[in-house]
């Protein structure tokens, strides 16, 4: 009896039950050269954050453990569940490897190039967190695909692959969730400078300067929807307003395609049928501000890829960015995602600030196969986002300027 009690005590000391279920935090940084975001994966290997990516892939440097997954294994099926459109590499389906082991498709989200590679196991090293501080280091054995070195083109210097964070079975959140017994959801705060965070398993999230506040309590939610069976994250937008004026896009324009989120495009792009009225409405709303006693913002020659630029000396600026009309996306469920100057205007060169939205390329107006709005990294920075695959919802909250994302 006493021995059993002692063993139970010893076990509970060695493995405190609570720490087994703590969320797992990794810092996220922005690469200034590419505007992509990376996270440390293990031993100094950094992977690019791709919230639309269904897999984890890398160049399989030391640390990878070759694993023999036959083509018929469920893990291999998961790895092949989201074929890359237009990728003609041989896979398990068409052309099996001689030894019958699994082939997965790796995809560079920036160049659009794909390759096929074996499926391996690798270690993801990170810390659990209590929401304020690291608690203990964890090693998560993760399944990752191996890609050739050439697939790294256009990715940040020093990165060795891509961490897919989409809602698929072999994306990093699902793998951490099953290994660490945490919820299949993650918090993401992309930094403009300094450190951001990704927290697998969810909140709380305290930020040191305001440590009594758990920012996840401030999240607003909207349902996540799947588009064409794709594991990337999409939401529905009901209307777009500039300050209090509704942008005149037909409801059907917003309904076709919805809003897709991407960490691998730098700026939000809008399909042509949404872009034109959007830019015109912004320009008008800026003029309307001057009719309400604000200084007249002077339009200057645009700097590509942007179309609407201002002499920044004629804009009023504060710590949260320029005081320009707020851009509000009213999402399904009625909650508003509002971008103020800090999320809508970019200083492109000294004296010039541009509306940081671009027109979607290669897509026709109204083409429902493309999203109406593709939210890019810049517009998500300093927002706390929660991607919850269990409740199928996206949480979002704009952090105040005094509370940037890092811990
Ligand atoms: C884990 O936390 C320790 C202590 O704060 C830190 O030195 C280390 O870099 C962290 N590891 C990772 C992978 O973030
Ligand atoms: C969202 O924004 C619209 C347009 O500005 C406004 O009419 C509506 O009241 C807002 N809803 C909430 C919940 O704040």
TrEMBL record:
Signal peptide: 1-19
A GO term, aspect molecular function: aspartic-type endopeptidase activity
Biological-process GO terms, alphabetical: proteolysis
Identification of the protein by name: Peptidase A1 domain-containing protein
PROSITE patterns for this protein: PEPTIDASE_A1 (PS51767)
Boundaries of every Peptidase A1 domain copy: 32-397
SUPFAM superfamilies xref list: Acid proteases
UniProtKB keywords: Signal
Family as reported in the entry's similarity comment: Belongs to the peptidase A1 family.
Species the sequence originates in: Triticum aestivum
Stored Gene3D superfamilies: Acid Proteases
UniProt cross-references to InterPro entries, sorted A to Z: Aspartic_peptidase_A1, PEPTIDASE_A1, Peptidase_aspartic_dom_sf, TAXi_C, TAXi_N, Xylanase_inhibitor_I-like
